[in-house]
Amino acid sequence: MPHGPIHVIGGGLAGTEAAWQLARRGIPSILYEMRPERPTPAHRTGRLAELVCSNSLKSELENTAPWLLKEELRRLDSLLLRAAAAARVPGGHALTVDREVFSREADAAIAAEPLVEVRREEAAEVPEGIAIVATGPLTSDALAASIARLTGSDRLYFYDSISPIVEADSVDQSIAFWASRYDKSLDQTGDYLNCPFDKEQYEAFVDALLSAEAVAGHIEESGTPFFEACLPIEEIARRGRDTLRFGPMKPMGLVDPRTGRRPWAVVQLRQENLRADSFNLVGFQNHLRFGEQARILRMIPGLANAEFLRFGQIHRNTYIDAPALLTPTLQLKSRPEVLFAGQISGVEGYVESIATGLAAAMHAAAIAQGEAPRPFPRETAIGSLCHYISAADQRHYQPANITFDLLPALDEETRHRLRRDKKARHAEVCRRALAAFEEFRAAHV
User: Fold this and answer.
1) CATH number for the domain harbouring residue 230
2) Do residues 50 and 90 both lie within one domain?
3) Between 40 and 204, residue with greater pLDDT
4) DSSP line for 166-203
């Protein structure tokens, strides 16, 4: 069936993966990316698939939900999972990448693909014909207005945040120590650099956070709809003095080799790139003025002389009311040739965005070939993710990461048999998912 190129709007994770997957199916696409002609508050480069928050693609532990989603993507020849493998840096059980290498790998692959035309311009309207909208959390105002007109509803939004990055050489490693949580040894074998607090240091740090000056202007002071899974540290501190040390600063499973005891609280630093010359402050996204950040973050033991390559920031995250608007194949109910993928569809997380970009490309390819798109089985991680964003309770809809809660429960007999063994239950969910995935792939991919 003759067709023109498919329009893919947005060169982030979802859009880049979508364009690649269309090319794998012999279908040309036009990939629109407004950077670097028009920058955003969060991005630093004009490259495709730039990571702006963490550099972690989450757990690689077998039989976890994040592992399952990545395993399905690998079996579908995901470009960005391939790029992640090339850019991997030590990160414990997580798939952690050098973000510069990661985006260069993706950018180069798309540039070398003759079936993908990259247009460095803003797409102000959803075009006619088959289109995948994958503009992510920083959708431009013009396109957001076009989407609102197309969907007949106002856009939804909340504010998301990104963590600071510090130069490795400015960390005092006579104080900070290497370890991963629950390591058995006290030698430098872990993948995280830990900055340990005693109680007095922690209390002073919390006092400073609570009195710090936030960035004013574009964020309302009351009712700010932060995403609960990515709260700024000052917002966490306002919820109770011990909330941070039971959250991103929890010291469980760590022993300070200087004292032989567990610290009162810990800030973990994660290697940011292959050269190991910078570290990400894990879970330390915030909305403080840069001067305040420098002052307060240097109160962290081991960071007294820290040099910051990037400070934490808050940025807008735009997403549609997907349960009211989308089908399980990510098609717009009112205009089925338009599909949504990535964070604008209501998923949260890098791998989740990649997954919906890949799924949208498969479904768009089916439309282009005159076929009916087939949803992934509910038993699979991809299928459950797409089911959630198209069928969640609209009254309480909020972007979601992949979890086992999104997948269908095991049958009653299996649940009863494995009721005392959570790991075995998770393993069975993954076994069932991959069996359904392979059956689906053999028939439809």
Assistant:
1) 2.40.30.260
2) yes
3) 204
4) EEGGGS-TTTSEE--TT-S-SSS--SEEEEEE-HHHHH
